[in-house]
């Protein structure tokens, strides 16, 4: 199973990459794909929306924190629009 989760980077000032990763991998383990980043100090977020939508359509589960970031960016609205196009 694939999850979208945060992967910590930076020593003193932490920032996080949003990655698609296998559930059995540790937090700092090898990721399948980088799909964005989040910097809580600067309150910046970058999301590769088409790639995130691809993983969500294939059944990837976001963690709670990533899900909150995606809700703020209104990615789930785009997901429902894409699903309506296919039906």
TrEMBL record:
Coarse class of the protein's main subcellular location: plastid
Gene Ontology cellular component list: chloroplast; mitochondrion; small ribosomal subunit
Pfam families assigned: Ribosomal_S16
Gene Ontology MF, one: structural constituent of ribosome
Coiled coil, from the record: none
GO biological process, one term: mitochondrial translation
Entry keywords, A to Z: Chloroplast, Plastid, Ribonucleoprotein, Ribosomal protein
Entry-linked InterPro entries: Ribosomal_bS16, Ribosomal_bS16_CS, Ribosomal_bS16_dom_sf
Subcellular location(s) per record: Plastid, Chloroplast
Family: Belongs to the bacterial ribosomal protein bS16 family.
UniProt-listed NCBIfam families: S16
Name of this chain's protein: Small ribosomal subunit protein bS16c
UniProt source species: Barleria siamensis
Organism ancestry: Eukaryota, Viridiplantae, Streptophyta, Embryophyta, Tracheophyta
């Amino acid at each position: 199973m694939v999850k979208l989760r945060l992967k910590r980077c930076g020593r003193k000032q932490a920032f996080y990459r949003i990655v698609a990763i296998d559930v059995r991998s540790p937090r700092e383990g090898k990721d399948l794909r980088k799909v964005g980043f989040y910097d809580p100090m600067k309150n910046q977020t970058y999301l590769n929306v088409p790639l995130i939508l691809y993983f969500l359509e294939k059944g990837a589960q976001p963690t709670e924190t990533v899900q909150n970031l995606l809700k703020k960016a209104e990615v789930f609205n785009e997901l429902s629009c894409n699903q309506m196009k296919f039906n």
